[in-house]
């Protein structure tokens, strides 16, 4: 490998680097001067020139600036927006290879971070669908679309109003999307229809930097029951603009069962603290799983890959080894999906979640399914898991925990070590933080087996389910 330096104000460039293997967060690595170099947007086997963008004490980061040879391990991306929108960073990697590296990621984290040994590592569970698998997408309007170098070099006068996705790491840059392979029909058709209507009627697209304009955001949720939710977010309360747009949507897409709008004059697009107005239909949609119906509102969380979520929950229930006599505590229960899913196999399920609105969703999901052996509480885990709660419902035989990406707070882990449930089933969307927590829990627990699950094909994200049993 050769090396040269450009002018002083330029970063160092490594030439003709052969990419070795995948690493964390979808980046690949090479080794140089006893340092690891993390490179984005390449594949193992590529030969590239790499410009160093960051220098750290123990590693470097870089980006490819020229490809000398492409890896035979590559495959042709199927989306015209690949490499620009950043949503499917692994489309150039064959699916079998994606699965291999996701499995390796879980295994490496367990061994290196968690220092766990003696467990069974089960083969990763693939997703049956590798495209059109999401039930929710969120699009952003912009009056100043991101242009690729090819578009700029074309010299053409291009439409700058966009409806699409954020460029990675840029809150203010939106790439206009023509066709997305993540969500089934009529997602693409609705997005294109909204954009055409807005252009035809000269509705102002929002400017995220100047905080001016009108159309801000479009959310589309499709359900496996056939229900369809659309949420239009605008900057100002101007019904003379909004009402004709909503009526147009209903005329063009009569299959919409739940149509909403949000007036959001804040500096960001989050609306969990704002009123969502149901303009047409029911104020929610339903997902179905093993005969259960789950109500999903505009602010509700639901796993975005419905089919694979069912497999994930079955796996979680199997790991829990329920025979109908156990008291199960479901931590970070969200809308109570797992809690209600396992309730028929348990004596009772106690769900705990810090988002109060999610707990209300969980209670409703029990009610509409005639489930009477669930109990839900809102609050911080370490504050809710008290002697008073144990006196009311008994100490847990099994704990299911499904924390956010940050994993469990150390105080929660300490509480679990005090509770000493016979079994813990740890569902994780971040193998690194799961491994960290498993190491702390290994003070009293043995990790019996771990099952990686692919919820998000074409990305580096992977879920992992671990079964722990109390020693002695």
UniProtKB/TrEMBL annotation:
<dbReference type="InterPro" id="IPR010280">
    <property type="entry name" value="U5_MeTrfase_fam"/>
</dbReference>
<feature type="binding site">
    <location>
        <position position="332"/>
    </location>
    <ligand>
        <name>S-adenosyl-L-methionine</name>
    </ligand>
</feature>
<feature type="binding site">
    <location>
        <position position="303"/>
    </location>
    <ligand>
        <name>S-adenosyl-L-methionine</name>
    </ligand>
</feature>
<dbReference type="InterPro" id="IPR030391">
    <property type="entry name" value="MeTrfase_TrmA_CS"/>
</dbReference>
<dbReference type="Pfam" id="PF05958">
    <property type="entry name" value="tRNA_U5-meth_tr"/>
</dbReference>
<feature type="domain" description="TRAM">
    <location>
        <begin position="7"/>
        <end position="66"/>
    </location>
</feature>
<dbReference type="InterPro" id="IPR012340">
    <property type="entry name" value="NA-bd_OB-fold"/>
</dbReference>
<protein>
    <submittedName>
        <fullName>23S rRNA (Uracil(1939)-C(5))-methyltransferase RlmD</fullName>
        <ecNumber>2.1.1.190</ecNumber>
    </submittedName>
</protein>
<keyword id="KW-0808">Transferase</keyword>
<dbReference type="InterPro" id="IPR002792">
    <property type="entry name" value="TRAM_dom"/>
</dbReference>
<feature type="binding site">
    <location>
        <position position="402"/>
    </location>
    <ligand>
        <name>S-adenosyl-L-methionine</name>
    </ligand>
</feature>
<comment type="similarity">
    <text>Belongs to the class I-like SAM-binding methyltransferase superfamily. RNA M5U methyltransferase family.</text>
</comment>
<feature type="active site">
    <location>
        <position position="429"/>
    </location>
</feature>
<feature type="active site" description="Nucleophile">
    <location>
        <position position="429"/>
    </location>
</feature>
<keyword id="KW-0489">Methyltransferase</keyword>
<dbReference type="GO" id="GO:0032259">
    <property type="term" value="P:methylation"/>
</dbReference>
<feature type="binding site">
    <location>
        <position position="353"/>
    </location>
    <ligand>
        <name>S-adenosyl-L-methionine</name>
    </ligand>
</feature>
<dbReference type="InterPro" id="IPR030390">
    <property type="entry name" value="MeTrfase_TrmA_AS"/>
</dbReference>
<dbReference type="GO" id="GO:0008168">
    <property type="term" value="F:methyltransferase activity"/>
</dbReference>
<dbReference type="Pfam" id="PF01938">
    <property type="entry name" value="TRAM"/>
</dbReference>
<keyword id="KW-0949">S-adenosyl-L-methionine</keyword>
<dbReference type="InterPro" id="IPR029063">
    <property type="entry name" value="SAM-dependent_MTases_sf"/>
</dbReference>
């Amino acid at each position: 490998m050769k090396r040269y330096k450009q002018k002083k104000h330029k970063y160092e460039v490594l030439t003709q680097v052969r990419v070795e293997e995948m690493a964390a967060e979808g980046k690949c690595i090479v080794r140089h001067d006893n340092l690891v170099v993390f490179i984005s947007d390449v594949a193992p086997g590529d030969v590239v020139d790499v410009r160093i963008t960051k220098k750290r004490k123990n590693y470097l980061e870089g980006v490819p600036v020229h490809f000398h040879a492409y890896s035979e391990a590559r495959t042709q991306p199927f989306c015209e927006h690949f490499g620009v929108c950043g949503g499917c960073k692994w489309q150039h990697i064959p699916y079998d290879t994606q699965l291999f590296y996701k499995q390796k990621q879980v295994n490496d984290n367990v061994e290196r971070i968690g220092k766990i040994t003696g467990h069974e590592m089960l083969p990763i569970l693939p997703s049956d669908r590798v495209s059109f698998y999401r039930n929710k997408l969120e699009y952003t309007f912009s009056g100043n679309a991101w242009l690729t170098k090819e578009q700029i070099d074309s010299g053409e006068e291009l439409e700058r109003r966009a409806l699409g996705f954020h460029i990675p790491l840029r809150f203010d840059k939106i790439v206009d999307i023509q066709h997305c392979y993540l969500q089934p029909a009529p997602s693409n058709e609705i997005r294109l229809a909204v954009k055409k209507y807005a252009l035809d009627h000269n509705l102002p697209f929002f400017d995220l930097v100047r905080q001016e304009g009108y159309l801000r955001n479009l959310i589309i949720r499709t359900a496996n029951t056939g229900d369809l939710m659309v949420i239009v977010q605008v900057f100002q309360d101007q019904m003379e603009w909004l009402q004709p747009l909503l009526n147009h949507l209903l005329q063009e897409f009569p299959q919409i069962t739940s149509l909403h709008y949000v007036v959001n004059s804040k500096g960001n697009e989050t609306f969990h603290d704002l009123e969502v107005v149901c303009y047409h239909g029911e104020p929610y949609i339903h997902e179905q799983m093993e005969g259960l119906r789950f109500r999903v509102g505009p602010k509700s969380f639901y796993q975005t890959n419905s089919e694979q979520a069912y497999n994930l929950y079955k796996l979680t229930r199997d790991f829990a080894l329920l025979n109908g006599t156990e008291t199960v505590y479901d931590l970070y229960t969200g809308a109570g999906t797992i809690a209600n899913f396992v309730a028929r196999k348990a004596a009772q399920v106690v769900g705990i979640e810090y988002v109060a609105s999610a707990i209300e969703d969980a209670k409703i999901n029990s009610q509409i399914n005639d489930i009477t052996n669930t109990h839900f509480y809102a609050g911080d885990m370490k504050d809710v898991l008290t002697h008073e709660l144990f006196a009311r419902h008994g100490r847990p035989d099994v704990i299911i925990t499904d924390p956010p990406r940050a994993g469990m707070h150390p105080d929660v882990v300490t509480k679990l070590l005090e509770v000493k449930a016979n079994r813990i089933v740890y569902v994780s969307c971040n193998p690194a933080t799961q491994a960290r927590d498993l190491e702390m829990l290994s003070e009293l627990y043995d990790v019996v087996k771990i099952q990686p699950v692919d919820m998000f094909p074409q990305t580096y994200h992977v879920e992992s389910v671990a079964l722990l049993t109390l020693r002695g």
